[in-house]
Design brief:
With 209 residues, the chain is α/β, with parallel strands linked by helices. It is built from ten helices and nine strands. The strands form two sheets. It has a six-stranded parallel beta sheet, sandwiched between helices. Strands 6-7-8 form a three-stranded parallel beta sheet. 43% of the residues are buried.
Length: 209
């Protein structure tokens, strides 16, 4: 988990991607790499997720690829087999968390309240997804939760935009932010990978600034 934490800290932004077509996996990954952000969280919202993770992991071995929206142990196993380097879920499912821990696989469950955080701590997890970030109180909620749980760090996702990104990243409790604005579904449907590359470059500039 420490290695994944270090890589996330370096990337600062994790594009959260939904891929419907296997053919889009390689050009999407190429656009992110060309844009200076060699990482992605491929969500299990489509049946092609595992295949896309496998393609990206094999074609771009230096890319940090995780599996998102993992709701079951079966999906977790598919993601691991496909080559995902970490597992992300929207909530904290004890069964999925235990399964990943048993297999010594990095897992980042979603939380947005004290009870979820305490459940995560009981599993020894201190890097957590804060979801849905903006709808759950945003940065102010993260700061409030950090007071009683100083050991916890967050990966906020949900409502993160180029406009509020810098405020989240300025918080020491935020490791990285998950975002979809540079990999919107419409861009992928239209195979507008040049626009994805352009927006990714803009996002990288925001990090550097």
């Amino acid at each position: 988990m420490e290695q994944i934490l270090e890589e996330l800290e370096k990337k600062r932004i994790i594009p959260v991607v939904m891929l419907r077509n296997i053919a889009d996996a390689k050009p999407l990954a190429q656009a992110l790499c060309d844009g200076g952000l060699p990482c992605a969280e491929i969500t299990f919202r489509t049946e092609t997720a595992a295949d896309c993770i496998k393609i990206i992991s094999e074609e771009f071995p230096k890319m940090l690829v995780g599996a998102g929206t993992v709701l079951t142990t079966a999906q977790a196993d598919q993601a691991m087999k496909a080559g995902a380097k970490f597992i992300v879920s929207p909530g904290l499912n004890p069964t999925v968390v235990k399964h990943c821990i048993k297999k010594k696989y990095p897992v980042i469950p979603g939380v947005n309240n004290p009870s979820d955080i305490e459940a995560a701590l009981s599993f020894g997890l201190t890097l957590l997804k804060f979801f849905p970030a903006e709808a759950s109180g945003g940065l102010e909620m993260i700061k409030a939760l950090s007071a009683p749980y100083p050991q916890v760090r967050f990966m906020p996702t949900g409502g993160i935009t180029p406009e509020n990104l810098h405020t989240y990243l300025a918080c020491e409790k935020v490791v990285a932010c998950g975002g979809t604005w540079m990999v919107k579904d419409d861009y992928i449907k239209l195979q507008n990978f040049e626009e994805i590359k352009r927006l990714t470059k803009d996002a990288v500039r925001t990090i550097r600034n």
